[in-house]
Amino acid sequence: MGKTIAQKIFESHIIDEPFVGTYVIRLDKVFCHEITTPIAINDLQARGLDSVFDSSKIKAVIDHVTPAKDSKTALQGKIMRDWAKRNCIKDFYDIGSNGVCHALFPEKGFVRPGQTIIMGDSHTCTHGAFGAFAAGVGTTDLEVGILKGVCAMKMPETIKIELTGTLPKGVYAKDVILFIISKLGTNGATDCVLEFTGPVVEAFDMEERMTLCNMAVEAGATSGICYPDIKTAEYLWNFIKKDDDKDSISADSTEVRYESIQSAVENWKSLWSDNDAVYKSIHTYNLSELTPLCTYGNKPDLVKPAVEMSDVKVDQVYIGSCTNGRLSDLRIAAEILKGKHIAEGVRGIVSPATTSIYKEALKEGIIDIFLDAGFCVTNPTCGACLGMSNGVLAAGEVCASTTNRNFNGRMGKGGQIHLMSPSTAAYTAIKGYIATGN
After folding, report:
1. Hey, which residues does 193 pair with through a beta bridge?
2. Is 394 left (phi over 0), alpha (psi -120 to 50) or beta?
3. What does the pLDDT look like over 33-61, one tens digit per residue?
4. What are the pLDDT digits (tens) for 158-203?
5. What is the pLDDT of residue 370?
6. Which residues, other chains included, contact 89 with Cβ-Cβ below 8 Å and sequence gap of 6+?
7. CB atoms < 10 A from the CB of 203, how many?
8. Coil, helix or strand for 44?
9. Would you state the torsion angle of the CA atoms of residues 89, 93, 95, 98, taken in this order, to the nearest 10 degrees?
10. Measuring CA to CA, which of 8, 61, 88, 291 is 20 to 30 A from 31?
């Protein structure tokens, strides 16, 4: 019987089965940020267990409230800094060099095909875009991961999502994942891995695949996952060549690059799901007629065509987050906003997901376009997404957002969130009500 990509990765990392059906798996990486990790750090200290299993495999960042907004968040940052210093964690990204974790860690080459990764954050599923098994975990599992480099869990079943057809102009990865969630429901993939395949996924670049996998958890999934291929290798090229220890003079030659990338892809193909792999279910969707989508209400599966929501006026437009704060997202929005201005009464906020993205957006003139259009450009942060800083809503206010959750009060008590793509968000900012270019 064949196996899925998730099964192959999971099984290759099993080191024990203490109870029938519950496995202890070896972890390749443990990611940490300042909201959930300080709780784990303090508990480990209290138990006299202030150590890490491998400082080179721990990656940490301050990204949710950055810079600190009050004494509590300042303390969270201090706990992280002191812990990273005590345990010689080299890959710790503080203010000035940081970014949203699920954008920063792939950017640094820390996510590779076939790896197992955990983090105390539900959107860790983002990293499955690289063909990794990546899952968000609770505090206890995070503590064990930090201390021992292992995690106990049941092997998840896999739901295959096959995406066919060709996306129409103005339709993006965000629209695709909103469509999928609307079909599956918020509990439709509970305790499962969503495996994304088909021509649409193959055509997506890595940033689009990350958007797709990022919101797998909104359907209840443990993780999303894509097959690692030549696009994965191209994205990781700068890290692959270091792994291969290529001579610095010849490493970027066309021949060396081609050989290294082809070699990587061939190795990764062994991870791909077998033709006779068994799935919990298979869903095939032709997306050729898909239109820009938008959420309504307070659940991510409440989705309708954005054109049907033109009666919804907005107070704020937010472009950023681990879902849609990458360079390609900023480019899409900037192309629409160039030479235009946001509607009167609308607050526009954009937060590039990492420092590197911010720098590149500056070079390309993207930041100027946002500023000229009337947007406030903030530093990289998760703050607005979960109502902590840099864009919190007041009761009764409405936000058009490129984030991943529209839960009641998510961005501020009494505020209403409508999730959408950066394209739809940009058009909405210009019009002052939910709008698209279609």
Report:
1. 158, 223
2. beta
3. 999 999 999 999 999 999 999 999 999 99
4. 999 999 999 999 999 999 999 999 999 999 999 999 999 999 999 9
5. 98
6. 52, 55, 58, 60, 83
7. 12
8. helix
9. -170
10. 8
